[in-house]
Amino acid sequence: MTATTMNFEPIGIIHSGFKEKFGIPRQPGLASSMQATIELLPDYASEEIVRGLEGCSHIWLIFIFSACADKGWAPTVRPPRLGGNRRVGVLATRSPFRPNPIGLSAVKLDSVMCSHGRVQLQVSGADLMDQTPILDIKPYLPYSDQIPTAEFSLAESYQALEVPIIFKSEAKHQCDIIKQKTKLPIEQQITEILRCDPRPAYQRSAEREYGIRLHDYNIRWSITDEEAIYVHSIEMAIDVLNN
């Protein structure tokens, strides 16, 4: 069989509150309060291309893992889901370090907006970093895409961290200010993301303070003996302050 090389061009990009890889939930839908906007590029921005899409409650996004597309791949990886200490074949995982760095996510479609030559799709629950290129969009078909009998022994279920999330007084105050200024449900978003436990398996220390970038803000937080998550501070990112 002769291999065929094909070149694909993105049809759009996503505008997301996730500005860096660390902190992004490892699967779609785990942070349902996180909204994002898919903007179709000019060559594809027509009302005709999305006609009928408003009838979908959910859509599939096919995208490029652009942040690590140049990092190469290996036949085996250590999935965080397995504690980072067990190797499995890359095709048995959703690792971004793949022979072809292509991802697939099912997200909730909130609205389709066509105005002044622009086409934008508002979605919820996307696990994509800001500016990720979108290769294709397909409707989610409940009668065929949902398989109640499906099984996968390496990831049979997902369990969020069921521990209290405590916002220190200054962090709580900043949440109130941000919500008032931007209407973002920032406290709910931080809560959903931290319940996914973004910590690397090899860095889970009660003494360590972690940071994630969300929207234009840096959030500092820690987990104490797996009994509580503390949000210490929320500050405007330096690059935003300098602009």
TrEMBL record:
Residues 8-149 form the TsaA-like domain. SUPFAM superfamilies: YaeB-like. GO terms for molecular function: tRNA (L-threonylcarbamoyladenosine(37)-C2) methyltransferase activity. It comes from the Bacteria. Pfam families: TrmO_C, TrmO_N. Keywords: S-adenosyl-L-methionine. Belongs to the tRNA methyltransferase O family. PANTHER family: TRNA (ADENINE(37)-N6)-METHYLTRANSFERASE. This is TsaA-like domain-containing protein. It comes from Neptunomonas japonica JAMM 1380. The lineage of its organism: Bacteria, Pseudomonadati, Pseudomonadota, Gammaproteobacteria, Oceanospirillales.
